[in-house]
Amino acid sequence: MEFNLYILTYVYRQLTSQATKKAGTTNLHIDVSDAVNVLVYVGIGGHGDDGLDNEEEIQQVEAEILDSNIDEIQLQRLRNGERPGALWHLFRADDAKKIREYIGRAQRKTAGSDSIHDQTAYLEKEDLEKLRDWSKVESYPILQFLGDAIFIPSGAPHQVKNLHSCIKIAEDFVSPENLDRCLITTNEFRTLSSTHTNHADILQAKNILYYTVHDALTTLIESNETNPSFESSSSNVYN
Question: Where does the JmjC domain lie (predicted)?
């Protein structure tokens, strides 16, 4: 049984200036399911009065990319003229606890809240360096170019900064490999306050698991009924 959740389309404005540097960003958060995010449009230029980006905006984007510590392969794609639309920082799911502790040092925690699930923090370069020095946790910076699809595992903290105006299409899904992470995140959401955006169990991971197993067993039973030799051959394998 295949479960397709939601296909979402996002339209983002570019990061335009230091004064509005939070515009066009998605703060650090964790998705309850796996997700794939495809960049289908990048709008470079056209934001100034003359139809072009001003020098300050261009320099800001270049500085953002160079400061992100992306690998040589991504830098080469940039040199080859490919269009970058967004800068991602992904973390290992196992590092979520340490990230919470780091953010919690600067934020006052209240009952029913969570340093990551509240989606109130974006870790800039200085924050990422302090996090690495403090807890040895490192992010994986990914520069998303036009046409790139990025897969985000359930339970993996991540944040996004859009370097130019762009359109993305995303689809959530549940993979067998990350079902345990879906259940862990679902349980974390339950501890949030009843008014929290993420409190409701929208994914219903246990129902997905139940109906998947039910479907598999039904198929096996029907196969045995229509092909009795199947059961005999299967038992020989285990004897």
Answer: 1-190
